[in-house]
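Dear colleagues,

As part of the handover before I leave the project, I'm documenting each prediction I ran so the next person doesn't have to rerun anything. This entry is a single chain, and its sequence is reproduced below.
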Amino acid sequence: MPQFSDIFRLKKKSLVRGTGLALASLWISFRVSGFPNTHFSLGLVLVFLLACAATWDTARCLQKRWSFYHGGVLLLLYVDLMILLMISFFLLAPFSRSLL
């Protein structure tokens, strides 16, 4: 049975750690980009890399055979991909204003 301290051990697989990192990186990206008046910030690149690490951590939890657990992990991976797209939008949106 997993314990609470397993969240902090990087060698162990943890859905809570991956999902928590992804949601935290989304919240940080909102704060760093200055949403709704987005501006470019190099800090967003670090947040994007943190979200990539969270997606990788979630993907480690996939199993070889399909089960409802496997399906739940796939849903969380789709959520992580949407978070990555949102952060990349925050990265690229300030450059679209300079083209107009």
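Residues 14-93 form one domain. The CA atoms of residues 67 and 89 lie 33 Å apart.

All the best with the project,
I.
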